[in-house]
Amino acid sequence: MPILRLNAGPNGLSLHGSPAPALPVLRGAARGRGPIIILIHGFKYDPGTPRFCPHSRIFGRARHPESTYHAQWPRALGFACGHADEGLAIAFGWRARGNLWRAQRSAWAAGVALAQAINTIRAVAPHRPIHAITHSMGSEVLFEALHHLSAHDVQRIIAITGASYASVAETAMQTPAGRTAELLNVTSRENDLFDAMFEQLIIADVPQDHAMGAGIDLPNAVTLQLDCARTLAALPRFGGHIHAPGRRVCHWSGYTRPGALQFYARALRHRDDVTLEALQDALPYASAPRWSRIFAMPQIPSHLLGGQKTAS
């Protein structure tokens, strides 16, 4: 069972598309071998609504005909490929539709359910590494879960353009579970518009706070700005080959960009080859300022500059 599809709803954890109780199935799946990677979608998905169901879209096996920004996470992350040691993917669905405030409250409730799932796995298979990868407001689900877990319950977290405040991320990463985990904070100036909208609609609890897309300063975290040329140039030494961005504004580029999910798979499955310390040393410390991509001056082709040559 390389992919287990769980949902968080009003009645707690449930199996997607099955009336069977979730926890016994989860216990059985946890007894396998290999890493366990939890996939958490973001805003606008709902496993109870077929048109917006994440299990038939980003967690599915084939391209959904109505999805413009689409990439199948499980196979790109190394699941359902027939390898004996590929481990277990837990596709975690939650109700993320409605307005942003409603989705955030739903994310917090889903985080409690996610912690229950992780605690269940830990009781059965304490030896298996557990990682998580999130997009958008899926970060709120994971950060809430960390408050209900223990040290070493989660090893590595990849948050792609997270819809969370930096203080929320930092507080979660300072819990017992957070302090023993590593966070790869994937950002891009392509997401600036969405970060700004999040900050306008969701009032921060901490004055002068900012969305985590502006960067996080923690010893167990690193920020990967995927529209930064220096970052993209550094990733091949870790086996990552991510294409340069093609848009100035995009909320999905962090996982639809060719090579992105494959690099995340390497970072989760081969942590010794992609260590946090090496990433911190190789990547730029400071993120580019907000709006720097949207208002960047277009590059003028050299042949339009009159063919002038600079002195050598």
Structure description:
The chain is of the alpha/beta class and 312 residues long. It has one domain (3-305): Rossmann fold, CATH 3.40.50. It is built from 11 helices and 8 strands. It has an 8-stranded mixed beta sheet, with helices on both faces. β3, α2 and β4 form a beta-alpha-beta unit.
SSE arrangement:
Layout: E1 3-9, E2 12-15, H1 22-30, E3 36-40, H2 73-76, E4 88-94, H3 100-124, E5 130-135, H4 138-146, E6 156-160, H5 166-172, H6 176-179, E7 182-187, H7 192-201, E8 221-225, H8 229-234, H9 253-256, H10 260-269, H11 276-282
Parallel strand pairs: 1-4, 3-4, 3-5, 5-6, 6-7, 7-8
Antiparallel strand pairs: 1-2
Helix pairs in contact: 1-3, 3-4
Query: Which quaternary structure do these chains form?
Result: single chain
Give the integer mean of the pLDDT values. Answer: 90
Shape: globular
Major sheet: arrangement of strands: 2-1-4-3-5-6-7-8
Q: How many domain modules?
A: 1
Secondary-structure-based class equals alpha/beta
Work out the radius of gyration.
20 Å
Q: Could you provide a short overview of the structure?
A:
This protein has 312 residues and is an alpha/beta fold.
